[in-house]
Amino acid sequence: MYFCRTLSELVLLTTIYQLIQASCDVFKFITTPDTGSAELTLDLTTSLETDFGVGVWTRFQSQFEDNESLDKKILNYFIFSQLYDGSLPLIYYIKLDREARLIYFEVIIQNKDNLQLRELEVKQEMVGSKWVFFYFCYSNSIKQYNMFIYIDQGVTHVQMASGGEYINQNDQIIPFILGGSLKYSNLQFNIDLQMNSFAGQISDLDFRTGSSNFYPDIPTFLSNLYDTDCQINTCPATAQTTILANFYNGGQILTKTITFYNKRFVLFGWIKLNELPDIRSLETVFIRATFRKIYHGDKYQGEKALYWKYYQSTMRDDDNGFEVSTYHNDPQSENLKYQTLESDTFLQKSSYFKDAVTFWHWFVYQEGLPNSKIELNIYFGSKKEELSYQMTQDHYEKVTYYFNIGGDKFIKGFSGEVRNLTFSFCQLNDDKPKRYCHYSCNTCFGPNEDHCIDCVPQAISKRSLNGTYCPCIPTYLDVGEPYCQSKFQVLGGINIQEGLISDTSGCQRNQFLVKMNDISYCLDCPGAITSYGLYCIDCVYNPTTWYQNPICTIDYLMPMTDSTDYIFTRRDRKQKDYEYYLINKYNNQDKPILEPCFGCYGQTNSTINFIERYTMNTISKILCKNCYTSINGECVNLIPHCDECDNKQQCKICEQNYTLFESQCYQCPIECPNCKYNTTGYYCKSCNEGYYYNSTFEQCQQCGQFCQICFYSNLLNLLQCVKCIDTVDYFIASEFTQCLPKNKPHCKSQVYEISRTFTNETFLSTQYIFSIDLRADLISYPTVDICLKCDPHYINVIIVRKLYGCYSVNEVEGITGMALPLVLKNKVINDANFELGYHEMQTKDGTENYYIMFGDPIIDGNQKYNPIVIRQEKPNQKVCLDKNCEYCIQNYVYTQEYCIKCFKPYYAHKLQGNCILCPPSCIECEFVHQIYKDGWKSDLLPAYQLRGKQELHHFNTYSLSTNVDDYEVYCLLCADDGILHNGKCYPKCPCKQCIIENDEVKCITCENSIKTVINNQCTQCPQFCELCREFTNEEITQINPYFDLQSTTYRKYAKQCLKRDINDPAEGILYNDPSLGQEINCKNPDKKDCYFYVELQQSIYCGKDQYQQNLDLEIDDDAKQYFKKYNQPLENLFSQKNSSHFEIETDFLFNELNIQCIYSKILRINNLILK
To answer: How far is CA 787 from CA 58, 772, 781, 790, 948, in A?
Structure first.
């Protein structure tokens, strides 16, 4: 028995500098763990010699390691083995010792009772991910084998080992197994090995026969290697492209597997996230691509081979953004200690991305660019701006990526949309893919039809830009392709013709029909039509029947008259504002005339409250409308300014700014529009701004000059002003009743200080109040005007009873007679947010101090300046006690901390000084007095603290109400782009611009100059129409009894035009067709009214067999399609089974017929084939 494992028998040569060569043929077949094992055979039947050699290239690559292997310290990888009569005479495997960082190239040779183990040792960092060539050769004549290890690198590393006979080989056919795993046991020698699939690439076996391929030494071995510069993975002639997700809007996570090589690939597509509907922060995983089937987060290399995550927050705008990570490949590092680095990641967060990520953005992610560069380019559609990011990473040449799209096992629930997500490798160049646009657009800022920036030139595409659309120009049709086609080309035998209306007695636009004595007349509607409104639209709604009840109840008005860009809004009149008309024809008139009936409501059979009038040349009872009474044959309004009366015509509800008393309406005083009245006079229920509501006397008392809000002070016995009409330009005067224009230079917030002084042997004590204090009990005492907040770069100086104001650095140094510490001086000059105060206390020893009112702490030698207000940069930083507080004052009351401002979406409680969550839909709010609206005072709190350094004057005690019931939460900023109105949040505006009306969101302007809103959505009207309405089902049926009311495809055309475009058509005239409710563009040379009809030319086959025979004679699909357009079997023409009777009846045709407002269809039979 022979067992050898000693280094003395190894011959080593480790530093040979020369060009090494090897054959490239063996790289045409590569084995990996994914491909499994392969069986190969060495054929010696044609060789006169039995000497042979077998070689193999291996390259370790971490991406092929499975998760179980990653946790093991020692691993055995099977490479190949020889098979002989059920045994394994030759086994080659590689052992990896992670702890010792060594690699052993092992050979097991066994022959009956002999077993030999040969081992070559190399440091792990020397191998890395380089190709390693193993060669085993055997000489039958001398009964010796040699084995070599060669590492392909700049400095060649070679090792050699030798041994004796390993088997009595008599077979001419020698089978081998390459790759896969192997379980090897030898109880005789106590060997039990589990060999895993090699974590990398294995070349084909390099079989060599004959004595010339037995290499006795290393130089001979090296001289028989061939060119190693082999292209292992060669790209085909065209790029390899995979659509990962053509359209995806969340739900189940999509999974894809892609193997690519040459390190180069590009990933691109459109994506947008949904806006957050509430107040929160959200992380969303868009893509996780790994090269391990099982991943643990970020434990091993490749678990974030490509990782894309979004950050959304309605709490802090700067927390919005994205993170795109990849992996680094460091052969010197251990995979067990792997973690994604900052250099592996594009991390972007700022308020810029809050809206940018919730609108479509196009990204192109490229790897394998020159110099191992990785580049990410994102075009943000909402900004119409492209941002670019780069990093450098050397990645594996061939990798399999396991894609998870729309989440991973840690973060699920993708909320957004993805379009055209594409992965491509082996591309011919490194050009970035162009943005995928809707086929109608040339360039775009999103993937949809209404995201066009420009169109392909009109001469080519037959399209022109209209807002953000690229519709086809007239006489061309959109067929779902970039270039529009001529209508004749698409519609074939369809001809749209213009016919003249022979009966010119029909009513025109804004006229209505009157039938009297079997004669029809057309009269003008009574309502005016202006740029800002349409009045009495009832007449336009139903021009053929309105005369039967000629009453005006509906108008369409723009919400404002400062521009004509607003939409028209339907306004239903109050009943008292209805207008009723009488229609009569007099003998001396050619046609009837329309006369207003004052106070009338309509014809009636009632026996009370009516008058008699002629209408339609017949005497009729006419009911007086609400709040009108029949007196002497007239409907008379006996209750002016009444909105609604009861059945006895007694007033129930008055107009706005009027109050009801004994069925009469009395106008309220201007200061209290909501009032009541009795025999003793007017009494108010509330007051306008600038007035104080005296609840005792129910009267409004006017506040002082320039005062917006005041209240009655029991302490002062007067109306005390608490807020000026402008807190920046005005300040409350010392008498507390009025406001004065601000006059102190460089001061943002000016107040008066009223004080009285007490003294003893040691201290001077001053009692003082500010003119903005609510608890004011001093008056007629000495006053000084002081500043509580200065402009940036000025110092707030308080020298009690001597000097108050805002001064520059140089001025302060002159005032104090000493230089300002340099660190403070630089902060004041350079930092606009830094606020410094100087307070010289009037004490016997003349102590003086500088105080940082707002800013970071500053240390100047042994002197430390702590700010009055400290800032917590981010939540839970443990600077302030309340984790959600952004600005706080420590030791505000003894050891109690007080929060001035909280992080969104929290507000600071004025009395408790802690942070409380804002209401839902509100991301920024404040806690304010319901009447005084004193949120602006919070900025002045640091000055209260500064002034209180000598005499305690507490902000909460003096400046605020201490009754918690006086306060309310007032919203300042809404989530999800909601509308802020009077401190409340309303849903996001569904159009371009909205207002709040009756506590509801109402559109007032639309994109692309649209003037019509239906169901609070901007709606496109038919051509040549500015304002329209939807037809009711009954009206649609009257126009077309065959229309499918359940179908939504063509419902968009079922609209009546109420107001034509202000611009005339480029050619011809516009005629309003009363039967269709549409504007028709008549182009006949006489400019006469017209209608459009469609003419269909067909050949009709009486027999279907003949039709089919002729159809079969056509040679290709285009010819068959053309035949079916112009030919029809008779049975199809009258079939009730077919929804379409002609081949040409397509969506293209019906859309065109609706757009052109086709009135009728004519079938012209060119031929009648009788067979």
So the answer is: 80, 12, 19, 7, 14
